[in-house]
Structure formats: C-alpha cells, structure tokens
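Allow me, if you will, to draw on your knowledge of protein folds for a short while. I have a record of one protein: its chain in single-letter code and its fold written as discrete structure tokens. Kindly check, if you would, that the fold set down in the tokens agrees with what the sequence suggests. Thank you for your consideration; the sequence and its tokens are set out here:
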Amino acid sequence: MTDTSSYVSLSQAPAEQSHHDELEEVVGADVRIWNVFGVTVPFVGLVVAIVLLWGHGCGWVALGLMLGMYCVTGLGITLGFHRLFTHRAFETNRFVKIVLIIMGSMSAEGTLLTWVAQHRRHHQYPDREGDPHSPHLHEQGVAGLLAGFWHAHIGWFLKPADPELPRYVVDLWRDPLIRRMSALFKLWVVLGLALPAAIGGLLTRSWNGALLGFIWGGFVRMFLIHHVTWSINSVCHLWGGRTYRTVDHSRNNAIFAILAFGEGWHNNHHAFPTSARHGLKWWQIDTSYLIIQGLKMVGMAWDVKLPSGEAMAAKRAA
C-alpha cells in the first residue's frame, strides 16, 4: 500500500471547519451530469468529424490541431495533475503550476482537486475494496472481466463521488492559488475548445477552418485523451508485464506508455509512486520525465524524486 499519510487528513481543526465544509461541497459534489457530458459530447464530436470527413478528406491544419492539443492536454494530466499535484514527484514555480493546471483542465477529466483526490484514493486501496476504479472487484470469468473493464474504464466515472474524497486534497485546498485555478475548471474546458477553433480559423482564414479546429482540436482530441487516460485504469491493470512486486495488479504496457507520455509503465509507477520517472529502464520511453528533466536544466523544476538502485533491486519480481 502506498503511504498516503503525508497528504491525507483524517480530521480538521475547528478553525478550518468552514473551509473543510466548502471543500466537501466542491470535491464531494455529485458531478454525474457533468461527467455524462464529458463522456458523450466528445463521442458525438467524433461522429460529426467522421461525417464531415466522409468524401472530403481532412486537412493538415485540423490534424495538426488535434495532435497539438492532444499533447498539450495530455501532458497537463501526466506532468501536472498526476506527477506534480498528486504525487509531488517534483517541485516547480507558481507560473508552471498555473500553466499545468490550465493544460490539464482543458482535457475535461474533472477539476484538479477531484482528479487528485480520486487518484490518491486509488493508491491507498489499489485493486482492493475502496479503489474507485479497479477492474478486479467483480466476478470471475469472461462476464466478470468485461464488467471489471467497463467499471475501470468508464463506469466509475459516472457514479457519485465518494464522500471521503475531500480528505485526500486538504493540502492542495489550503493553497489559495490552486483552489481558485481548480474552481475555474469549466472556463479552462471552454478555452480548450475555443483555442483550436481560433487557431484553425486564423490559419485557414475561413469559418470552415474554425469549425474543423473546434471539432478535431476540441472534441475529437478530448475523446482520444479521455480513453487513453482511462486505459491506464483499465488496460494497465489487466494486460502487460510486471517488473516489480506490488500489492496490486498494475502492469507495464508499452503501447499506452507511448500514447500517455510514459504513464503506461504503470507497474513501475505503483512500485514507486512518488518517482518522477516512470520508465525506469533506458529503453522505456517516458516523455513526461524528459520534459521534467528539461525543466530542471533551466531551473524550473527541482526536488525531482527518483527511486534508488537499492530500492529497485529490492522490489524486483523474481
């Protein structure tokens, strides 16, 4: 089990009770309507994109915007929401934090505080009762496998938030900047749709270019980044290799390591959750860690955490 004592607060001092109540209202809110929107609308956008594409082809501008926004929002999740804010794998300045919160929020996977709370809970109860999105808490056999996959991939996202979630992000809630930036989540989602539309319109000097930028750089990109992120919860707890001994069923999956900027080295991550580097072997591509190294070189990242050779040897699977 991952030690979560450094960021999980089980109780609040009386002077903080009002803030705690507000935190519970924000993180513990029933956001199923928003989540249904986040799941269905990008899919509808994908269908519209296919209809518009049929018989006409797709220009490089639209594809470039989709790829560019995929990288921006995906790295916002991996660098910001996951490695920086959830696990404190490195430290950086306030400006970089603001940029990463905006980038991650544009992915439309939920507010920073809710995302972090869910993931910290996942690490406290990995593949056990209490894990919000384990695929292993269902019946055996094909039916159980399919039910578990559905739950881990999408099903958990459509259920009410666990009332205990607020206690996992008290440390972040105490920072006024992070609290405000997380609260502006819907604004950042709109920005993530408006930005590729504006760029597409400017580059092509046409409304059609703006529409294609809106659909491909917005909704199609959202659809792709959602399912790649959710696959870390589902696929990477079912299929792949295991280099290290852990109490869960986490797996290393090279395909999703590439698609998710290093997150697919999931067994490595569960073995060493606070490590800024998930691809622990030289050949394990970890784009997110390369960027952290770049930030460190220019003085914009520090306290970069890595497991020692002794720790890796001790946990290596037989």
Remarks:
- The two ends are 20 Å apart (CA to CA).
- DSSP finds 14 helices and two strands in the chain.
- The chain has one domain: 36-315.
